[in-house]
Amino acid sequence: MNRYILPILLGCLTISLSVDAIERGNGRMSMSQPPVFSDFDANQDGLISEDEFENFQKARQEQRISEGRLLRNSVYSDGMFDRIDVDHNEFIDADEFQSHRGTMKSSKS
14-40: per-residue pLDDT in tens? Predict the structure, then answer.
């Protein structure tokens, strides 16, 4: 009986640590989901202002740093709002957001 206790405890510990790492996004099997339009649109008016965009980006970067995660693509964040706001009306609408998403997906292929 006693010879089974240590392997069982080690198994439980391994499973617990794996689940914790995956939940925090540090596991190899983690599926990091990109933010959606409503994540940026803080006031839910259907438009993303530059302030909303920058506040979301800053909060996301701070969260990643606190979790010990890499800041992938942060070097490209300067001027990102202007690149997404193709009609230059100082707001990103859902179509511009989706268009940018499509561009990002196709560039990864």
Answer: 665 544 444 444 443 333 678 899 999
Ramachandran sector of residue 40 (left: φ over 0; alpha: ψ -120 to 50; beta: rest): alpha
Bridge partners (DSSP) of residue 48 are 92
Q: Map tokens 């993303």 to a residue.
A: 48
What's this model's pTM, rounded to 2 decimal places? 0.62
The phi-psi region of residue 78 (left if phi > 0; otherwise alpha if psi is between -120 and 50; otherwise beta) is beta
Q: Would you call 65 helix, strand, or coil by DSSP?
A: helix
Cβ contact 47:91 at 8 Å = yes
Rounded distance between C-alpha atoms, residue 80 and residue 47, angstroms: 16
DSSP state of 69: -
